[in-house]
């Protein structure tokens, strides 16, 4: 089953910042995905101090998947990921990290394996804590770019206007549906469907 998630992904991580002041900001798009996945598979997320985050689990296509939303700030996301990876003896290739992606427009989402962190503090910390290993899966949730690097911090920590938020939520809905394909049929089929999706 080469390329199939059956032999790979077991942990899905949603990146964001904790607290109500951040919950609706663009940087929390990964959190929204994991919350939606938990809702779709009828599971709840519970605070788990030993994993520095909120965790849950569900079964899809006969396999158990674990969910994690770190309760640390974004730049310390790897602390929670490493704690769970060590406890469950997971390799980077068994981890899928959902995160906001400025290189993609709102309404676009893409799966990929490996790559750099492109300045994303959550990805940077996870890669560092996993021994500088970038070979985990990513779900890149497009949020667009403010147009200038000096505006990035305010942009990711700001709320998207309603029209953009709607597009982001559509892409998260589609990514949730595509997770089911990922679990049953593998990465390539899930990519084929998700990457052809355009919110509108």
TrEMBL record:
GO cellular component: cytoplasm
Gene name linked to the record: pth
Keyword RNA-binding tagged: yes
Site (Discriminates between blocked and unblocked aminoacyl-tRNA): 17
Enzyme Commission number, as recorded: 3.1.1.29
Record-stated family: Belongs to the PTH family.
Subunit structure: Monomer.
Residues involved in tRNA binding: 22, 73, 75, 121
Reaction(s) the record says it catalyses: an N-acyl-L-alpha-aminoacyl-tRNA + H2O = an N-acyl-L-amino acid + a tRNA + H(+)
Protein name: Peptidyl-tRNA hydrolase
Active-site annotation: 27 (proton acceptor)
Presence of keyword rRNA-binding: no
Annotated site, Stabilizes the basic form of H active site to accept a proton, chain positions: 100
Catalytic class of the enzyme: hydrolase
Protein role: Catalyzes the release of premature peptidyl moieties from peptidyl-tRNA molecules trapped in stalled 50S ribosomal subunits, and thus maintains levels of free tRNAs and 50S ribosomes. Hydrolyzes ribosome-free peptidyl-tRNAs (with 1 or more amino acids incorporated), which drop off the ribosome during protein synthesis, or as a result of ribosome stalling.
InterPro entries reported for this sequence: Pept_tRNA_hydro, Pept_tRNA_hydro_CS, Pept_tRNA_hydro_sf
PANTHER family: PEPTIDYL-TRNA HYDROLASE
Compartmental location: Cytoplasm
Record keywords: Cytoplasm, Hydrolase, RNA-binding, tRNA-binding
């Amino acid at each position: 089953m080469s390329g199939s998630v059956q032999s790979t992904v077991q942990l899905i991580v949603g990146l964001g910042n904790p607290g109500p002041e951040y919950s609706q900001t663009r940087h929390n798009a990964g959190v929204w995905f994991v919350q939606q996945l938990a809702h779709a598979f009828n599971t709840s997320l519970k605070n788990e101090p030993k994993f520095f985050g909120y965790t849950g689990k569900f079964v899809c296509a006969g396999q158990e998947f674990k969910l994690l939303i770190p309760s640390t700030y974004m730049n310390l996301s790897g602390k929670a990921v490493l704690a769970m990876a060590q406890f469950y003896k997971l390799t980077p290739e068994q981890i899928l990290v959902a995160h906001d992606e400025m290189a993609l427009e709102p309404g676009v989402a893409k799966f990929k394996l490996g790559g750099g962190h492109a300045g994303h503090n959550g990805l940077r910390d996870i890669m560092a804590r996993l021994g500088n290993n970038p070979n985990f899966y990513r779900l890149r949730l497009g949020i667009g770019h403010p147009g200038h690097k000096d505006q990035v911090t305010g942009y990711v920590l700001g709320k998207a206007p309603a029209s953009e938020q709607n597009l982001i939520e559509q892409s998260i809905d589609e990514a949730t549906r595509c997770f089911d394909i990922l679990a049953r049929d593998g990465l390539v089929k899930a990519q084929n469907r998700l990457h052809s999706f355009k919110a509108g």
